[in-house]
Specification:
Rossmann fold, Alpha-D-Glucose-1,6-Bisphosphate, Chain A, domain 4, 28% helix, 12 helices, 32% strand, alpha+beta, 7-stranded mixed sheet, 7-stranded antiparallel sheet, Quinone Oxidoreductase, Chain A, domain 1, globular, 483 residues, 23 strands, 3 domains
Length: 483
């Protein structure tokens, strides 16, 4: 039987450290070796007997059970049920004690376990250094995030706070949008309240405003994407702290606001090298490009890709990323100015058309074959041309419908083609997938694979003007509203 013991002093009061550690599922938020984790059967994360099921970032999978929890003694004991690592009979105990000055905490972590003969030192070092010492430093970093000066916006934390929001008073044109006084509720269990600094504008907001997507019952706020700073969090939120810079792209609508309360599991912490405006312009559109290119249809070198609205927010990212993947990128745009922008962003062959006529040119550019994949955000008016432009055994991906919904399914049998109608939010509802998509998007931005150029900024109160310009095709790339 191997015994491993490590101790450390954490520069935070015992109550603050214990508040984190007593949550048996908090380790994914602060431990550098732990990936996504969940408590099985939706049990509370502090209930004795609950089981956490998680991945390590090296790919290993572990299930552990909480055996004992004492709030008076500040002790937690747990055991390993299953693991892809060759460790058996693992039992571990965490105990906290108050350091004399009361502002620091002594943390004692120990375990016993068995390993295959000859590998004792290997796994003693793994547990002692990677798990325990890595965990100490991970929690220190996590708590330092929360040690930032409390934002001025946090005045009144725990109570409803006054805010401004853009409300769709009914379904209709941009004129139905009104800038109104609202209240941002205090966060409940699993929720976070965010002081928003930048709000993304997307075509889905138009669909919600008009009623094409029945996601609100007017009067109600619209918008699904924003970035800002955490004001406060509700019970059970482990991965966010007041002062964190964060962003999100998720339903329900309500992002067109100065202050907002929403589900914390759809909110991600921003890397230091991604500013708030970039995040608000990137989250929805960047993750859309990520799942279209890497999940819905895995683009490979040599593929012929047709991107509609190639100078739009999603279109530019699709062109940049597809070109980096080695694809031949063809795009449709509505003007010569947009063609120049698309060409500068990876679209080798922009087709200028205002009347949804492009199939002949696509075929000419592909030697008569057509496009291997079509990324279609246009909808009804482009349907016949899309079918004509599609290669045999090609993939038509319809992820939007700016010209209206399709009247019916096209005759894909004439091309042995496939049709997809993917929705980003179905994928990101799984937090593991959300985190993976967000991190890949941030990494692509960091590597220069994709770029975000914000050409259009409007005051939040002028959201109706942003919608008018978007629908009239007067915009290029990303649009953000500034609260």
């Amino acid at each position: 039987m191997i015994r491993v013991t490590r101790s450390a002093v954490i520069d935070a009061p015992l109550e603050r450290v214990w508040d984190v550690l007593r949550d048996f599922n908090s380790h994914w938020a602060w431990h550098p070796a732990v990936g996504e984790s969940r408590i099985e059967n939706d049990e509370p994360a502090d209930r004795v007997g609950c089981v956490r099921n998680f991945q390590l970032k090296d790919g290993n999978h572990i299930r552990e059970q909480l055996l004992a929890l004492s709030d008076s003694e500040h002790i937690s004991t747990y055991c390993m049920l299953d693991a892809t690592l060759p460790i058996t009979r693992y039992v571990s105990t965490v105990q906290l004690k108050r350091v004399t000055d009361g502002e620091r905490t002594f943390w004692h972590w120990q375990s016993t376990f068995d390993t295959p003969r000859g590998r004792e030192k290997e796994f003693s070092d793994l547990v002692g250094r990677s798990v325990y010492e890595g965990g100490f430093e991970g929690l220190r970093s996590y708590l330092r995030r929360g040690a930032r000066p409390t934002p001025a916006a946090a005045t009144g934390a725990g109570q409803a706070m006054p805010a401004k929001a853009v409300i769709a008073t009914r379904h209709g044109g941009p004129e139905v949008l009104e800038y109104r006084d609202v209240q941002a509720a205090a966060p409940g269990p699993g929720e976070v309240r965010i002081r928003q600094s930048a709000v993304g504008v997307n075509y889905i907001d138009v669909y919600v405003r008009t009623g094409l997507y029945p996601m609100i019952k007017p009067p109600d706020a619209i918008g699904v994407e924003a970035a800002g700073t955490v004001v406060d969090v509700g019970p059970g939120v482990a991965h966010l702290l007041p002062g964190d810079r964060v962003a999100y792209a998720c339903p329900p609508p309500g992002a067109y606001a100065t202050l907002r309360t929403l589900a914390a599991d759809q909110v991600v912490v921003l890397p230091d090298d991604v500013d708030d405006e970039t995040a608000a312009a990137l989250m929805l559109k960047g993750m859309t490009a990520e799942f279209l290119l890497h999940r819905t249809h895995r683009v490979r070198p040599g593929h012929s890709v047709l991107v509609h609205a190639a100078a739009g927010g999603v279109g530019l990212l699709l062109c940049q990323w597809a070109r980096a993947l080695g694809a031949k990128v063809i795009g449709t745009v509505s003007s010569e100015d947009k063609a120049r922008v698309a060409r500068a962003n990876g679209c080798e062959f922009p087709i200028v058309t205002q009347h949804y006529q492009f199939a002949t040119e696509v075929k000419n550019l592909t030697g008569g074959r057509g496009a291997d994949v079509i990324y279609d955000g246009l909808g009804r008016e482009a349907a016949a041309e899309n079918l004509e432009a599609l290669a045999v055994a090609g993939h038509w991906v319809c992820f939007g419908q700016a010209s209206g919904p399709h009247d019916g399914l096209p005759d894909l049998g004439s091309k042995s083609g496939t049709l997809s109608r993917p929705v980003l939010f179905h994928l990101t509802a799984d937090r593991t997938v959300l985190n993976d998509m967000a991190q890949r998007t941030f990494a692509a931005l960091r590597a220069g694979t994709i770029r975000v150029e914000i050409r259009h900024r409007y005051p939040l109160a002028a959201a109706a003007d942003a919608h008018r310009d978007l629908e009239a095709r007067r915009t290029i790339g990303a649009i953000v509203l500034i609260p």
